[in-house]
Amino acid sequence: MKNHLLIFLSLITLVACQPKDPTEQKIDHLLSQMTLEEKIAQMSQLAGEQYPEDLETYVRNGLGSMLNVMGEDANYYQRIAVEESRLGIPILFARDVIHGYRTIYPIPLGQAATFDLDLVKEAARLTAQEAMQAGIRWTFSPMVDISRDPRWGRVAEGYGEDTYLTSVMGAATVQGYQGSDSIIQLAACVKHFVGYGASEGGRDYNTTWIPEVQLRETYLPPFKASLDAGSLSIMCSFNEINGVPTSANKHLNVNLLRHEWQYDGVLVSDYASSQNMIAHGNCKDLREATLLSINAQMDMDMENHAYFKHLKELVEEGLVREEQLDVCVRDILRMKFRLGLFDNPYCAVENPVYYSSEALAAAQRAAEESAVLLKNNGILPLSSSPHHLTTVLICGPLANSQNDQNGTWCFDKVDSATVTPLMAFRELAKQGKICVIEQTGKHWSREESQTNIMQLTRLAKQADVVLYFGGEESILSGEARCRAHLDLPGDQSAQIRALKATGKPVVLTVMAGRPLCIGEDIERVDAVLYAFHGGTMQGPALANLITGVVAPSGRLPITFPQAVGQIPMYYNKKNSGRPTSNPVLYEDIPVGAAQFSIGADSYWLEYGDKPLYPFGYGLTYTTFEYGPVTVSDSILVSSSSCLIASCEITNTGTTDGVAVPQLYIRDLVGSITRPIRELKGFQRVNIPAGESRVVSFVLTEADLAYWHLAEGVDLGADGHYTYLAEAGDFHVWIAPHSAEGHPAQFTLKK
Ligand code: BGC
Q1: Is the Cβ atom of 301 under 6 angstroms away from ligand 1?
Q2: Of 15, 36, 352, 531, whose Cβ has the fewest other Cβ atoms within 10 Å?
């Protein structure tokens, strides 16, 4: 006993004698001088568009952060903060720089379709370079909300339906923004914590119900991956989850984020999300919302005015301890030190470089790689020779809309710098490579007009090929842009029907913020490129793809349902008890169940159980043949070994191309049932025509693990979840998409 006491005391002495981190010492020093009011100001962010009249007084009193203040304005307020506030703590300027600052890259959903992590990281690096010139040091990106509901407008802002893909995309984006130097460039803010993409009915700001095992398995890993990649901050979401709004959710914000994950970055509310708690019915007024938020360790209050209005009285009444505020202020100051703000508070506003050739080249490559070829009856790539120049009709509402092709959330772009498909094809015509006729004028996708159709048909008759650029305008996706119909809005389907009736081949390019249920339109046309909203250089990118200067290499990051009634639809679902397309895997099926076939499953009478296009799908101008999957061993011995799964891929066509082999696994039997497939890896492999490449993936026990509720514990109890793999049989695929391929089998022994 005495010995134990001695060991304990020496441990305490050891910890106490450890020299304190110099940054923490600086924070201690600042904190010790701060008044209660200064702490509250430091914990508040005000938005540029909602300034209080006496904003300068707020700054002089130690305001922590400002949203949407840039350039010379930012320097103006920064000077007041640094030189006129009592402690000279610099302000942190924030803005939503979501997929580019001036140079716009594809919307995140489009970036996910590239399956190219280096490119996504590079786009974020170049974005940070541009944004920092305007004094922005904090962006509210990446959004890693998993969404399996394309009605939800914000599906455009995330990386799709899959947890693994979203995790690696989120981490790459964080690394791109923040860089690898000790002084961080642009602070990332991973959002929205958590479950926002599961909003009921795809309605924004709506209720979510997510059991803890599903939360841990599906929704939390992308957040963990982004925090592990170093994200300096994280933002709450607007939804309530299991009855508690996230801004007040102690289980998520304290138990999980701070204790289990040991996160020491900044947790910021979403825009007025504390106020939203009143509407959710979780508290009666802003004072109560303030109390709940601070008790859930919300470090910074974004444009709620809640902390400003009520935190002081709550401390004075003894309902909140001042030490609770210290913890939050410490996080905020730590972030400011990590950004080097105390040494370099100002931005250099002179001669900023925007739209550099490097940024434009990366934006073009990203737009090229994000387009997914869904259908091609051989019309693409267009052939044109000096002897016979192909005449194309360029038409459709998105053929020449400099604003719309950039998509949602890009406040700082300059429309005139955006190159549309029409502009790119005109340039090709100038170079004598193609003949262009065009339908001029602005044609909103929501417009219905008979004259438009008559004009279109007349023009189509003069062309060899019709290039129709349709889809959704930018305002149809993003925050609060949910749709109940997922068709081509307005007159577009009628226009496509009329164009097809001319007998001319029609190539449909869809520029949109979400998957659309456009099976009938697709049936009518000869080729379909699904290009999402691709940003500044989408025009030249599409011209290159259509004329074959580059081949499409994008793959779908989200399942495309045939009809809205199939939603939610995603590839890594579980089998129903009577599956039609995912066979029961073991022989000894009870009598009766074995006989179930089409007609007995939980399928839709109109559509069967298949999507329009599965996750991971995408064609190119060549074809690939995937050989059988082999595994280096049929048995994986727990933790002590790994398996190598391999497969030979042959380019069986006549042009070079990029294959995107995807590694999927299935745990055949789980104490908590497992999805029919789970993505665990992917590669982009360039394979010259006629050649083969062997691709290999390493699998370890960690790849097979999933979340369990610790035995004997009630669902929902904190801290009683374990992440482990169960012994048994597994399937492994290396396949071109989530609905193809033959698996190999192996066994995990423990
Ligand atoms: C959005 C966030 C965004 C914030 C600040 C909110 O409405 O949900 O994603 O970062 O506004 O503009």
Answers
A1: no
A2: 15
